Amino acid sequence: MSMPFYVSPEQQMKDKADYARKGIARGRSVVVLQYDDGILFVADNPSRALHKISEIYDRIAFAAVGKYNEFENLRLGGVRYADINGYQYDRRDVTARGLANVYAQSLGTIFTETNKPYEVELVVAEVGEDAASDQIYRLTFDGSVADEHGYVAMGGQADAVAQALKDRFREGMGLAEALLAGVRSLEAQDADRRLEATSLEVAVLDRNREHRLFRRLPAARIESLLREADGGSAGASGEGASGGGSENGAS
C-alpha cells in the first residue's frame, strides 16, 4: 500500500502562485496611466473582438491581462455589481474602491479554495474631478489589492514595461504624450519592436465628458496622436511584429 502524498499548505500556495504568475507572464502587457484630462489605458492587443479594456460604469473602467475567459467572467460580475448597486442606491455609490473589494474577495476565494487559481491581473480605475481624486487599484491573482498612483504596468514582461514607464511618465501629460509614453513602454519588452496603431487597444476615462466618461480610440485617432507626440516622425507607428513576454513581477 503506497503512502498518501502530502503537500504542505505553504508549498501548495507557492505552487499555485507560481502557476498563476507564469500564465499571466505569457500574455501581452497592458499599461494604465494618468494624463491631464483623465486616465489612459493602452493594451498590446491586435484582436478587435476580445477586449482587455472595458467600461464598467459611468466613471469606472477595467483593464486585465491573463486568461481571457477568466477575466471576462470577472468583468461581467463587475458590471452586474455596478448596475445593481447603482439601481438600488445611487449611481454615485458605485465606486472603484467598492468594486476592487468585490474582486479581491472573489480572487482570494478562488485562490485559496480551488485547485486552479485564476491566471489574471486587473486594474479597476475611476476618474475623479481632478488628477488628485483619480483612483487606480491593481488586483493580483490571489486577491491582493494595491492603490496605485501615476501609472501601472501588468502582464508580459511587466518589470521592463514598468521601468520604461517610470522613465517616461510625468504628471500632467497631454493625451498624445501619455499615449506615446505608454506605447514606447510596451515596446520596451523587445528592442526591435514597433507597435502599430492596429495592434493596440486604447481607451480613456475622460473627465471632461458628460455622464459616461469611457471612450475607445479608433486606430486612425491612435495614429494621429502618436504622430503628433512624435513630432510627425515616421517611427511613431512603424512596422513591427508582436510577441509575448516571459516573466512578471506580481505582488
TrEMBL record:
Q: Which species is this record about?
A: Actinomadura miaoliensis
Which superkingdom?
Bacteria
Listed CDD domains? proteasome_protease_HslV (cd01906)
User: Compositional bias (Gly residues) at which positions?
Assistant: 232-251
**Which keywords has UniProt assigned to this entry?**
Cytoplasm, Proteasome
Localization per Swiss-Prot or TrEMBL? Cytoplasm
Q: What is this protein called?
A: Proteasome subunit alpha
- What regulation of activity is recorded for this protein? The formation of the proteasomal ATPase ARC-20S proteasome complex, likely via the docking of the C-termini of ARC into the intersubunit pockets in the alpha-rings, may trigger opening of the gate for substrate entry. Interconversion between the open-gate and close-gate conformations leads to a dynamic regulation of the 20S proteasome proteolysis activity.
